[in-house]
Design goal:
By secondary structure, the chain is an all-beta fold. About 0% of the residues lie in helices and about 50% in strands.
Length: about 725
């Protein structure tokens, strides 16, 4: 998402109806932000501890590991006996490309883990053969580079959505059985055979510009290596030098274009498969001096050490491997290869369970402010708007008659008891009390952010939160900031704590002004979210009561007035609003609507017995919505993703109802839930941190990829909190 996000980056503000403010800030004392670098496929689950400042001080359990991979389990056979095939994953499915058995092949197959089945896809059109490598580009495309007929330099691009092929710029030199890795918009070719002779050349393919650059060469010419990228470095282990197998490990630093050497692996081999799981390089199988192996070795960059993983059921060489998201965690899949029975068709899977983060012990601090500051009121009073549009009274009771969006129900996640990996900590930032729960936050920079509580507007000025305006008799619910001189807040006005009329106010850099807004319906009118596109293009959603029904509505600011916008259904409330651009907006609740720049169109329902609270979008074909679904009267986490023209439910750790989502990049998403914060690294959702006792998370915002706030409430004593 490249636009200005009001709440999290430049111009988007997420909201949810309730509570809390959290901030992760980088401090020299050693408290760093939770969250990986945006734009990179961070394969290490981003987990953190929470450190709550105050007296008594909360303590966190020492953590040491992200978990133990499960045993290799046999899955459905590959459709053909095959060795030397290329394997890649988009996080949802595994794809196998080309290879060789009794002859060279150009076939392509897709694996579905849920059904344990393979499907034939469009064949590779640029030659049949072995020695190719493939990587997912985090853009809906897989890049199959080199190999095929020995010594070719084809750069084949497979479009997953259209099941079609095209060509990118060719590799500068022919390569086969090389290493291939993706990082931050680039695909890296490392070493490999050039007409059968091991090579040391390294090239980087820039996906955006469709160009190649030559980089520092591999210190030793080799092919058939285990190769993958983790956190800005490419790891190249083992391989064939032309005179025998090696067990050395070379590490390429992408930022500095330099190579270093790591500890040797436990066993010299050639032709192992490799992938990344839990932030570690998995080296799977291979051919050693003793023959084909069934060993799995794990290299951990954090400890710079190797360890043994589970053994394969079948020893194999020149197989392919990749990782997908599965219920309960991330799963490595190893496909086919060459073994004692010649070409193989067997497939095996090993799951790394989702690891809950550290729990916080101790009693949360209680703050009693010496005084509650008197804040100035707004400069105007609510006026009855003249542009109110009342939707037609088409119903008083709501009945679902539309087709519900099909969403698969993920199975329950595994229970894991081992301790998680230590990560940077969130820390609590004191806020003024007496204004109720904090419901939303919009960060502009490290020194500037806005937040809304039940009856007050808070401003972060780099060192503390100050209540800058009190708004008695209101329920403020959302804030959107287009810049330091253009901030909107929305919510409701009413007596005795009950919503009656909508409320909007604007900050112009010097003063707040209440702006009249439409009030459709009979009663209970309130705004729940606001989204900023431009000074003359701001949207808000909410709902009102009509008879026994709760009805959603949408309003738009054109730079002069707020106007209600008609759309094709007025049943059920709307809770969240966001988009990737002015012609790509989403509104969610029990229904899902999309705005294409001309009209709001009904897309479908959330799953049965569920409600969506928030949405965010990275692109027209990549959006995320979160909320809650009920099973046996228990409220559970719900995550759905818009991809390939459909909303699909995604498995994730359960932290209760989810209230906000911030999408920074395809491999860097954050979700706030009642009992914790989740992070998505492009492959799997993991629990980043659990909520301290008595605290629930309700909203998130970032000013940059390494500067995150979270907001919500403390139950006892009732108060807003910020981290």
């Amino acid at each position: 998402m490249n636009e200005v996000k009001t709440k999290s980056r430049s111009w988007r503000v997420l909201s949810v109806p309730l509570l809390l403010l959290l901030f992760a800030t980088l401090v020299t004392a050693g408290i760093a932000l939770a969250g990986g670098p945006a734009g990179n496929p961070s394969k290490l689950p981003a987990q953190s501890n929470i450190v709550v400042q105050g007296t008594p001080t909360a303590t966190a359990t020492t953590c040491t590991s992200v978990g133990t991979p499960g045993p290799w389990a046999v899955r459905a056979n590959y459709p053909e006996f095959m060795a030397g095939l290329a394997v890649a994953s988009n996080g949802t499915n595994i794809y196998g490309f080309a290879g060789r058995a009794s002859g060279r092949r150009n076939t392509v197959y897709k694996y579905d883990y849920a059904t344990d089945s393979w499907t034939t896809m469009a064949s590779y059109p640029y030659g049949a053969g072995t020695g190719s490598q493939a990587e997912y580009g985090y853009n809906g495309k897989i890049y199959m580079v080199g190999g095929t007929a020995e010594g070719e330099s084809v750069n084949g691009i497979y479009d997953i959505a259209s099941n079609s092929w095209s060509q990118g710029a060719p590799v500068p030199a022919p390569v086969s059985n090389h290493g291939l890795a993706y990082w931050n918009g680039k695909v890296y070719v490392v070493g490999g055979g050039q007409y059968g002779v091991p090579g040391s050349a390294v090239y980087a393919y820039d996906i955006a510009s469709n160009t190649w650059n030559t980089l520092a060469p591999l210190p030793q010419a080799k092919r058939y290596m285990a190769t993958d990228a983790i956190n800005g470095k490419i790891y190249v282990a083992n391989g064939d030098t032309g005179s025998g197998s090696t067990n050395n490990l070379y590490i390429y630093d992408i930022a500095t274009n330099t190579w270093s050497e790591g500890p040797p692996s436990p066993l010299a081999s050639t032709g192992p498969a490799s992938t990344v799981l839990g932030g570690k390089l998995y080296m799977i199988g291979g051919s050693a001096s003793s023959g084909y192996t069934n060993n799995t070795y794990l290299y951990d960059p954090a400890t710079n050490s190797w360890s043994a993983g589970p053994s394969l059921n079948v020893a194999r060489y020149t197989s392919g491997a990749a990782v997908i998201d599965t219920p309960g965690g991330q799963t490595a899949i190893v496909v086919a290869g060459f073994g004692a029975a010649l070409w193989l068709d067997s497939v095996e899977a090993s799951i790394l369970p989702v690891v809950p983060c550290v729990t916080v012990t101790g009693t949360p601090p209680t703050r009693t402010p010496t005084s509650v500051p008197t804040a100035p009121n707004f400069t105007s009073t609510i006026a009855t708007p003249s542009n109110t549009v009342v939707p037609p009274s088409n119903t008083t009771t709501a009945t679902r008659t539309n087709t519900e969006i099909p969403m698969s129900t993920p199975t329950s996640l595994a229970t894991v008891t081992h301790p998680p990996e230590c990560r940077p900590a969130w820390r609590e930032i004191p806020t003024e009390q007496g204004y109720g729960a904090i419901h939303d936050v919009a960060a502009l920079s490290r020194t500037s952010a806005w937040a809304v509580a039940d009856a007050g507007v808070l401003r972060w000025e780099g060192n503390r939160w100050n209540v800058v305006h009190s708004v008695p008799g209101t329920g403020l619910r959302a804030v959107a900031a287009g810049g330091p001189y253009d901030v909107w807040i929305v919510g409701w006005n009413g007596l005795y704590g009950y919503p009656d009329t909508t409320f909007t106010a604007h900050w112009d850099g010097s003063a707040w002004s209440i702006v009249p807004s439409p009030n459709p319906g009979e009663r209970g009118r309130q705004l729940t979210d606001v989204f900023y596109v431009a000074p003359n293009n701001v949207w808000a959603v909410g709902h009102f009561d009509r008879g026994t029904a709760t009805v959603g509505f949408i309003i738009h600011w054109d730079g002069t007035t707020w106007t209600e916008v008609p759309f094709n259904d007025y049943v059920w409330p709307l809770n969240g609003l966001a988009g990737s651009g002015p012609n790509d907006l989403w509104a969610v609740g029990s229904q899902i609507y999309h705005y294409n720049g001309i009209s709001w169109d009904f897309v479908g329902w959330s799953p049965q017995y569920s409600d969506l609270h928030a949405v965010d979008a990275l692109a027209p074909d990549d959006a995320w919505a979160v909320g809650v679904y009920w099973e046996n009267q228990v409220a559970l986490s719900l995550i759905t993703r818009w991809t390939n023209g459909a909303w699909v439910q995604v498995a994730a750790p359960d932290v209760g109802p989810l209230n906000d989502v911030v999408a920074l990049a395809p491999d860097d998403l954050w979700v706030a839930g009642e009992r914790g914060i989740l992070h998505y690294d492009g492959r799997v959702w993991t629990l980043n941190t659990s909520a301290p006792p008595g605290i629930s998370f309700k909203a998130l915002s970032d000013s940059s990829p390494d500067d995150m706030w979270a907001v919500g409430q403390r139950v006892d004593p009732p108060s807003g909190v910020a981290f």
